[in-house]
Amino acid sequence: MGFFNGDSLRNRKNGFETMDGGKASPPQKAAYGKIIGIAAAVIVVVLLAFNCTYEIKEQEQAVLITLGKAQSVTTPGLHFKFPLIQQVRKVNTTIQGFSIGYDADTSETVTEESVMITSDFNFIDVDFYVEYRYSDPVKALYASSDPLEILRNISQSCIRTVISSYSVDDVLTTGKNEIQAAIRELILEDLEAQDIGIQLVNITIQDSEPPTTEVMEAFKAVENAKQGKETALNNANKYRNEQIPSAQAQADAIVKEAEAQKTERINEATAQVARFNAMYEEYIKNPTVTRQRMFYEAMEEVLPDLKVIIESPDGRTQTVYPLDSFTGTAAAAADSQNNNGGEENEDN
After folding, report:
1. Which helix (H) or strand (E) holds 96?
2. What pTM was estimated for this model as a whole?
3. Does residue 38 contact residue 48 with C-beta atoms inside 8 Å?
């Protein structure tokens, strides 16, 4: 049976053992509690310092969630939040994109996306690239579970709808811009109806070709023929544009020459009419003389180099050359004779 002194009994009643029993004294326990409290306070301060601020970059927007309620934060820079009460989720608002019909990383064709049927029941392989951006970060995070997948499905549906209303020639050649515009309008309408916080920026046709090698070669031959047709038309138009001015110039020259000849003929005819009228007036005055003069003038014009030989009854000959002297002498003698006869008639 042991003996206990008063201090040992008092310490055991207070819950502290002595150094020999392995229990700390009250001052030591108080020091341990103080150290633990300081360490916890430092940990809390560090956690608060690292969780009470967040930064938004120029091409970002954030969603601040306060006790389950979300609101957008669009101003770039440093912002504050209450730790453990508020949470922040960031959204990239730059223009991003994805491919349809091919893998953008490997450039390999994705057949189930690219092969489509046209209005004239031809198969065609068309690749698209879709550009988008997040316009409302709150809706982008909470209006749907995967807005990007919704945009992809809407795009594929609109693409097939539009492609099925165009012929294969339009898709391959001249109708690409019109097709892109029609697809874009359909996608915008569907996105507006869905309202998922994502915006279509642009959609473009990257490539379009027939799905098989044989068909591809046939379409290339058709395309080459069309280009040859266009080249021939351009060359023909060029030749026409070169020849038309020359032909017009020749036509103008012909018209001017004809007008000149017309004027010349009219003037000549007018002069002949005046001459004939003057001759007729002279004929009325002296018919015989006028007839002889007309005869001599006609002979002079028809036989300008004629040599005239006159033979008299006694066998002598006389050569008159040229005819002008003879006709002039004869005409003068005839005029003199006529004048004399006229005077005698007047005397009578």
Report:
1. strand 96-100
2. 0.50
3. no
d(CA 123, CA 162): 14
Nearest to 101 by CA among 80, 73, 121, 130: 130
Nearest to 209 by CA among 173, 179, 177, 166: 173
Does an H or E element contain 120, and which?
none
For 248, the 3-state DSSP assignment is: helix
Task: Name the residue with tokens 């954030």.
Answer: 62
- DSSP string covering 276-323: HHHHHHHHHH-HHHHHHHHHHHHHHHH-TT--EEEE-TTS-EEEE-SH
Neighbours of 110 (CB within 10 A): 13
Nearby residues of 76 by Cβ (< 8 Å), 6 or more positions away: 56, 57, 58, 60
At 30 the three-state DSSP class reads helix
Residues 42-87 pLDDT 10s: 776 666 566 677 788 888 888 888 887 888 888 888 887 777 788 8
